[in-house]
Automatic annotation (TrEMBL):
InterPro entries the record matches: FAD/NAD-bd_sf (IPR036188)
Record organism: Streptomyces sporangiiformans
Record Gene3D superfamilies: FAD/NAD(P)-binding domain
Protein name: NAD(P)/FAD-dependent oxidoreductase
Phylogenetic placement of the source organism: Bacteria, Bacillati, Actinomycetota, Actinomycetes, Kitasatosporales
């Protein structure tokens, strides 16, 4: 029987382990932390019983993941839940851009911009179930559904700022800008529309779901399946060098390219070692979890029913903040993402005290305290918010890197989303999961299709490892 070691028990590491175990490979997963999950961990904070997601929280890409959907994780307790409204983007006047799962319903709420929204998203969203596989893997390959992919891909190649010109109302422009800003990239750059379009297309097809009981339920279910398949998971094991590894036929690494360059050292071909060491990281995140009595008193009524609220003002404001953080400047009014997961999953609350999840986009390695700026941004669109706060828990930008070593400088995307890295991964190659060292494969979110709890990076890396095992 062939054997494999997987280093890292986040969604991608566990996905790789499951794919290998399903192919009758004996798998051992080594996790440096004391608990599994990587960015999907959740826990109680502030008030006993109040459940907060530590990092990833809203999962349009995971609920539609071609790999996860085929695992039957509902047998292991994974349940998805949806809010009434997927996302709202409030503006100062009390209005908001509102994103529903339905393209038609979203377009109806955008008035004069409804036709443009439908033209951009209706076709790709309806077809996402068939061509989603094409965008959830390496882009440099022959697509299975080239026509559908072209309808999605041609706009995705453009700057987000160009697509913003398709909309006339500030509500539509801001709604688009807030989703596009998930890329942590200046919105004027080529390909900056791609991540926003990916989120919107998947979201309109599957919805912006949360995992009941916290994001931890995703990897808890994956771990339970792996154990049923005969796999093993060992926590508290930090791998710093190859000699630490148990003997195995293949090793799959859920780590950053720079970390892997240090671990594999001289085993790496020099050109690949250089590429891994030059791998670039993007802006960081600063997170504040709130316990809020009675919920957030948003001025825009739709925001009170939205699982996600983008707090950043107009499109022009968001574009300016993304330019600032990319240049290493901390904006006075940062772009803030707010999660109200309890609206879809009331089990996270304690009575009338609710967990409110938030983080701001900040420069990579930011060492300041953004708590006041985040609070002020929410208060700006929800007067009286401060008076409802029962308590807070902060994860600083350096704290993100301590929490998960893959988040270098607080970069929760595991790498800058510039053109080269978004298309090619950590190095120019048609096989971004191969390391150049026989039997060793990279599966972190630094590889295509990138960040998220979808597990697809791990599934693709495992496929390469299985090809090696089969000769």
């Amino acid at each position: 029987m062939s054997t494999a070691t997987v280093v890292g028990a986040g969604p991608n590491g566990l996905a790789a382990a499951i794919a290998l175990a399903r192919a009758d490979v004996r798998v051992t997963v080594l996790e440096a932390a004391d608990d599994i999950g990587g960015g999907t961990r959740s826990g109680e904070a502030i008030v006993p019983g109040l459940l907060h997601d530590h990092c990833s929280a809203i999962h349009p890409m995971a609920v539609g993941s071609p790999f996860l959907r085929g695992l039957g994780l509902d047998r292991y307790g994974l349940r998805w839940a949806w809010p009434e409204i997927d996302c709202a983007h409030p503006l100062d006047g009390g209005t908001a851009g509102v994103l529903h799962r339905s393209v038609t319903e979203t377009a109806a709420g955008l008035g004069a911009d409804g036709r443009a929204w439908r033209r951009l998203l209706q076709g790709p969203s309806a077809a996402y179930g068939s061509f989603g596989d094409d965008i959830m893997g390496p882009l440099l390959r022959l697509p299975r559904h080239p026509v559908h992919l072209a309808r999605f891909g041609i706009p995705a190649l453009t700057p987000a700022s160009l697509l913003a010109k398709s909309f006339r109302t500030e509500e539509a422009r801001a709604l688009w800008g807030g989703v596009a800003a998930h890329a942590f990239r200046p919105l004027e750059r080529p390909l900056s529309a791609s991540i926003g379009l990916g989120i919107l297309t998947a979201g309109h097809h599957y919805g912006w779901a949360v995992a009941e009981g916290g994001s931890r339920r995703i990897t808890d279910a994956m771990a339970a399946l792996l154990i049923d398949l005969g796999g093993k998971i060992e926590t508290g094991v930090r791998v710093r060098s190859v000699p630490q590894l148990p003997p195995a036929d293949v090793t799959v690494w859920d780590v950053t390219p720079t970390a892997l360059a240090d671990i594999l050292g001289d085993l790496l071909p020099p050109r690949i070692a250089r590429a891994y060491r030059r791998y670039r990281y993007g802006p960081g995140a600063f997170k504040v979890d709130f316990a809020v009595e009675g919920g957030v008193p948003w001025r825009a009524e739709a925001a009170r029913r939205a699982g996600t609220v983008h707090v950043g003002g107009t499109y022009a404001e968001i574009a300016a903040t993304e330019r600032d953080i990319h240049a290493g400047r901390m904006p006075k009014r940062p772009f803030v993402l707010v999660g109200q997961q309890y609206l879809a999953d009331p089990s996270r609350s304690v009575g009338d005290v609710h967990p409110v999840w938030s983080y701001a986009h900040v420069p990579n390695g930011y060492t300041g305290d953004a708590t006041a700026a985040i609070t002020a941004q929410i208060e700006r669109f929800a007067p009286g918010f401060r008076d409802r706060i029962v308590g807070t828990v902060v994860r600083t930008t350096p704290g993100f890197a301590e929490y998960n070593p893959n988040y270098v400088g607080g970069d929760i995307m595991t790498g800058a989303t510039d053109i080269a890295q978004l298309v090619l991964g950590p190095r120019p190659t048609l096989q971004p999961y191969d390391t150049g060292v026989p039997g060793h494969y990279l599966c972190s979110a630094a590889t295509p299709p990138g960040p998220g709890a979808h597990g697809m990076c791990g599934a693709h890396a495992a496929a390469r490892a299985l090809r090696h095992l089969r000769g």
